[in-house]
Amino acid sequence: MPDWLSREQRSHNMASIRSKGNASTEGAFLRILRAARISGWRRHLDIPGRPDFVFPSQRIAVFVDGCFWHGCPQCYKLPKDNRTYWRKKVESNRARDKRNTRRLRTKHWTVLRFWEHSLETDQGRNQVLTKLLKAICARTKDKSHR
C-alpha cells in the first residue's frame, strides 16, 4: 500500500519522533540486574554501538533489542502501510547491529543481545539472567588467568 503522506510530510513526522530510552525493555533488564544484585555495570557507555548496558571490567556489552525496530524473527510483522520504507529501515537496523557486534568482538568484547520478548516472562527472564551470569563468570575467570 502506498504511503498516504508526501515524502516531505513523512520525513517531518519521522524526524519529530524521539526515543524515550527504550524505557520498557531497558527497565525490564534493569529490574533483572537489581533483583539478582548484579553490580559493576554502566548504562550507555560511549563505545562502538552504544550498548544499553556495559560491564567495563569484564568487557561485556549488552544490547536489549526491541522486537519491532530490530526485526525479531519470532515477533516482527511488517506494517501494512509504507512497506518499502519499513522493510528498508529494519534491514538497515539489522545490518547496523551486525556491524556493531563485529566491531566490539574484534576489540575483544563479549556481546550479548536479548530480544524484548525474552524479558516478558519469568522463563525468559531466567534465561537472560543465566546467560548474563555465565558471561560474567567466564570473563572474570578469563581475566584472572592473564
Task: Give a structural overview.
This protein has 146 residues and is α+β, with helices and mostly antiparallel strands. It has one domain: Endonuclease, Chain A (3-Layer(aba) Sandwich). Helices cover 48% and strands 12% of the residues. It has four helices and four strands, in the order ααβββαβα. The protein has helices spanning 7-16, 23-35, 83-106, 122-144; strands spanning 42-43, 53-55, 60-65, 110-115. It has a four-stranded mixed sheet with strand order 1-2-3-4, with helices on both faces. The longest helix is centred in the middle third of the chain and has 24 residues, at 83-106. It is elongated, with a radius of gyration of 18 Å. The mean pLDDT is 89.
Question: Separation of termini?
Answer: 58 Å
Structural class: alpha+beta
How would you sum up the major sheet? 4 strands, mixed
CATH superfamily: VSR Endonuclease
What is the CATH class designation? Alpha Beta
CATH fold type: Endonuclease, Chain A
The total strand number stands at: 4
Instruction: Indicate how many domains the architecture comprises.
Output: 1
How do the strands of the widest beta sheet line up side by side?
1-2-3-4
Layout: helices, strands, pairs:
Blueprint: H1 7-16, H2 23-35, E1 42-43, E2 53-55, E3 60-65, H3 83-106, E4 110-115, H4 122-144
Parallel strand pairs: 3-4
Antiparallel strand pairs: 1-2, 2-3
What structural keywords apply?
146 residues; alpha+beta; Endonuclease, Chain A; four-stranded mixed sheet; 12% strand; elongated
